[in-house]
Design goal:
Length: 75
């Protein structure tokens, strides 16, 4: 049994039984978990460039090189 003891005086020690409160809390948690509706998964459209055999002539200022280092860190 869950009890809360509050001692103000050595003579009086009131005890509060918290069993009903714990039962109610778990009942409410279970109720809300079972009655809620989860978000539906939504697929995103992926925009891909058109396939072509010709090379693009890009300036060096418009390109970026990413190098993976140790421990999956970007250099």
């Amino acid at each position: 049994m869950a009890e809360l003891s509050i001692s103000r005086n050595k003579k009086e020690t009131p005890k509060v039984d918290l069993t009903a409160m714990v039962d109610l809390a778990f009942l409410l948690i279970t109720f809300f978990m079972l009655t809620t509706s989860l978000a539906k998964p939504i697929a995103m459209n992926i925009v891909k460039p058109e396939e072509s055999d010709e090379l693009l002539d890009l300036a060096a200022c418009k390109t970026m090189t990413i190098i993976l280092g140790k421990h999956d860190r970007v250099a």
